[in-house]
Amino acid sequence: GLQQKSKRRALPPGPKGLPVIGNLRDMALTGLWLGAREWAQKYGELVYLNIFGQGLLFVNSYEAAVDLLEKRGAIYSDKPKMIMAGELCGCENMIGLTPYGDRLRRQRKLMLQALGASRIESYHPLLEIQTHNLLQGILNSPDDSASIIRRYAGGLTLLIVYGYRVMSNTDKLLDMADESLELLSNRIAAAGNVWIVDLFPPLKHIPTWFPGAKFKRDAAVWKGKMEAFVNEPFDFTKQQIEQGTAVPCYVSMLLDDAALENKDQAVDDQRDFDIRWTANSLYAASFDTTISAISHFFLAMLQHPEILHKAQKEIDTVIGTSRLPTLSDRPNLPYVEAVAMEVLRISSPVPLGLPRRITEDNVYKGMFIPKGTLVFGNNYNMVRDPAIFPNPDAFDPSRYLDDADEHTARLRDPRNYVFGFGRRKCPGQYMIDASLWIAVASMLAAFDVTKARDEFGREVEPAVVYDNSIFTTMKPFRYDIRPRSAQAVRIVREAKGLSD
Ligand code: HEM
Description:
Strand content: 5-15%
Number of helices: 20
Bound molecules: protoporphyrin IX containing FE
Strand order of the largest sheet: 1-2-6-3
Radius of gyration: 23 Å
Number of strands: 8
Structural class: alpha+beta
Helix content: 40-55%
């Protein structure tokens, strides 16, 4: 099959694999994007690999991403059917795994209704309150900032999506998300991992006690956890609605609308399903992405004190030191804006996007891409294209500051890459754009971040160790974070928080 085809029409280039297993050994389980960037440098804008005959295509240039993932979106927007993750572990209805079609269009419409560009201003007060909570948490326990960032990332969407307030680091729903997402991205649906049952689907019928059937026993346990992760927060909100104590949020607003709109049970059930699963996907998708972006912000600040000070000076000059920034200050703080953009670029939280599946044979610039190939939009490589981002590995906000015509400005805006492409592009992009900015601006206003010191007073270099196969999250590294002044302590304590 494959070889005959490739004789007839050339597949895109890529590292040579072994017989049968193909490129299995080339697939790293964490930090796959690092290898994928090397392949891009060696082989060019499209790189093709296979694992046991399953084709994998890495789309490495922006031009090819637009041509394929956007312009040919009709055949590049589907998803792999994953037996292990989907059927056996109960994740098949998560939006990132939902096949392209009517259901997806309906669900994306719901998400964009709530989180589209025009809605975001209505969330500004919530985003500011949640940010104050983040600052107060750091002020109270600076050594515990990793848990505080995690609480911020989960708490933000729990509040907006479910109207649920997280008041401690050991909250039940937070822990549940943490555990479920770790399982999902590092075990169940790890980017470089293939489950034998996905290659040989009849294996799903083998009995659980059978030798080699450990995957089925694991799947049964994981499925229970995934179901709780989807249902418990949703049931919380439903209960609050019944008791008349619901806070306006994504779930409560949509359920209210549904109740007003119709009395038809079948339509209601479909709405219930759509709201339940989109809510879970919004929650799931915001966790590691936000954590990655904010930890890269800290990393950059402790590596570049001059950038930290320049941004602080802008804030002090434009808004003074007697209050924290708000989202309405954003247009007046161009350097802080550039820092936030550079954080998005350097972190590229979902570096290879989420896999698509091409539904028809396709040819691009003479290269043949077979139907069924899994397609990864390698945004990590695109935001490191030296033609657009000179010296691409350096954290350098000044790259956005000189005047540029519209075309150049668009090309160098990291938001055009890191959120993916076309019909599956991230529906959370407008929300995170606002939440990341206010978090970055407020932390700059209130804190200094420096390298930690060891017992001999020597600076500790932060170690960057990626710990995930889909997101660029890192193992916690040490740094020193402290308020800039007594005045900073006061404005953080006085800022309106979650418990006010
Ligand atoms: C900096 C933060 C984030 C980045 C870089 C990011 C990036 C991405 C990327 C690259 C994709 C895949 C797009 C594609 O296939 O082309 C995606 C999908 C998705 N994102 Fe985000 N995301 C972020 C935060 C969020 C947040 C906060 C939410 C929810 C509030 C969210 C919700 C989703 C959902 C539901 C999908 C699946 C869409 C689909 O399959 O149709 N993301 N995101």
